[in-house]
Design goal:
By secondary structure, this protein is an alpha/beta fold. Helices cover 39% and strands 15% of the residues. The strands form 3 sheets. It has a 7-stranded mixed beta sheet with strand order 2-8-7-6-5-3-4, with helices on both faces. A 4-stranded antiparallel beta sheet has the order 9-10-13-12. Strand 5, helix 8 and strand 6 form a beta-alpha-beta unit. Helix 11 packs parallel to helix 13. It is globular and about 60 Å long. Bound molecules: pyridoxal-5'-phosphate. The site of pyridoxal-5'-phosphate (PLP) has 13 residues, from helix 5.
Length: 389
């Protein structure tokens, strides 16, 4: 029998897939409400669907694109991000990947290797930590969510930096908490990264759902931003394209050269059809995207209203973008036990905080983007039911 890569073997199984099995732990009493994976509850815009059908008929759609992505898509991203961040970005600053997860994987592979470390505020997006472990990169985490503040502090990250530190990894709006980091805070992490010669990697998958026109940060406005900053983006949520797999990396030429080698080996290029569809989205679906952002804002309001219900012992600790982070009332009970019980006995699937890093046993993550606002009271009703034991 062959032997497996110990670095990969020691990593936990994919968390969403594991959670999906909990619904099978008991017979269903009624239709389950699945809030475990962050997927939009609606399909891509009809105009995009028509464009995808048209593109599928064209001979070039069956071919590879340039390794770093369609020139037109890189140029459009550069133009739109330049406008929205008040910066001067060029197409060469962008690489297109098969989703933001791949963007993260290639960026981290280019930055660090076995024996190095990267700093991750906890709670974090679990795939970020899993990939570090698979590469033999130590994930150093510090507590970044408490009753007092849902934000990470740069001093705490700085205390963990040593000569093997290659990156600080942030996600804003945050998965799992939904917290939006203020531009000044992101700027302070950038200053720290610059000062200490490490990379600041910022996952901005949910940036469009801030519902604000002002830039999420001003890092791209600094002339030397590419010396210390790497931005990751996803088309999955903003354009409801989760299955099409398109994401991007913004970085400087030194990192891009490494990313090109890695992408060439892993995927050669992101899917051609999907890249064209993403370009169509950028060019023609601004209004559609804004309507969906507005829809998500209404869902956030519905979550707040639903959690105001009397007699509810679950507390809404944080809410934004796609996620509600909820403190469950069963102190001392593992979050996984609470989540499994909610799935098996109350037909409500969500993820335990413990999947998102140390110190999260009191929390559950509800990915509310999956459901209509009208279902929020039922979610809360099922939580309330679970209080009676
Ligand atoms: C923070 C974050 N980054 C990346 C991803 C993955 O995005 P993509 O579908 O573009 O790979 C997700 C998906 O849930 C996410 O929450």
């Amino acid at each position: 029998m062959f032997r497996l890569n110990g670095l990969v073997a020691q990593v936990e199984a994919p968390p969403i897939a594991e959670a999906e099995t909990w619904l099978k732990l008991a017979p269903r009493n009624r239709v389950a409400i699945n809030l475990c994976q962050a997927v939009p509850s609606y399909p891509p815009a009809e105009a995009m669907q028509r464009e995808i059908a048209r593109l599928s008929q064209l001979p070039h759609t069956g071919l590879y694109t340039e390794i770093l992505g369609l020139p037109g898509l890189r140029a459009e991203l550069a133009a739109q991000f330049s406008a929205s961040y008040g910066a001067t970005l060029t197409p060469q600053h962008f690489a297109i990947t098969a989703g933001c997860n791949q963007a993260y994987c290639v960026a981290l592979m280019a930055l660090a290797g076995r024996g190095d470390n990267a700093i991750l505020p906890s709670p974090y997006y679990f795939n970020h930590a899993m990939w570090l472990s698979m590469l033999g990169i130590e994930a150093r985490s510090f507590a970044a969510f408490s009753d007092r503040s849902p934000l990470p502090w740069p001093e705490e990250a700085e205390a963990l930096i040593d000569d093997r530190t290659r990156a600080i990894i942030l996600c804003s709006p945050n998965n799992p908490t939904g917290a939006i980091y203020p531009p000044e805070l992101i700027g302070a992490f950038y200053d720290l990264a610059l000062r200490r010669g490490v990379a600041l990697v910022l996952d901005e998958t949910y940036k469009d759902f801030r519902g604000e026109a002002s830039p999420p940060h001003r890092i791209f406005q600094t002339p030397q931003w590419a010396d210390s900053f790497i931005q990751l983006y996803s088309f999955s949520k903003a354009y409801a394209m989760t299955g099409y797999r398109v994401g991007s990396i913004a970085a400087g030429p030194a990192l891009m050269a490494e990313i090109e080698k890695i992408m060439d080996c892993i995927a050669i290029c992101a899917p051609t059809l999907s890249q064209h569809a993403a370009l169509f989205g950028l060019k023609h679906l601004r209004q559609w995207k804004e309507e969906k952002v507005h829809l998500m804002q209404k869902r956030i309001a519905a979550v707040h209203r639903a959690f105001d219900a009397p007699g509810l012992d679950y507390e809404l600790a944080s809410c934004g973008a796609y996620f509600a982070y909820v403190r469950h009332p069963f102190r001392g009970l593992a979050a996984k036990t609470v989540a499994q019980r909610l799935a098996a006995e109350h037909d409500l699937l969500c993820l335990p905080g413990s999947m998102f890093g140390p110190g999260q046993e009191d929390y559950l993550r509800l990915a509310f983007a999956n459901i209509e606002a009208s279902l929020m009271p039922q979610v809360v009703e099922r939580l309330r039911e679970s209080q009676i034991r």
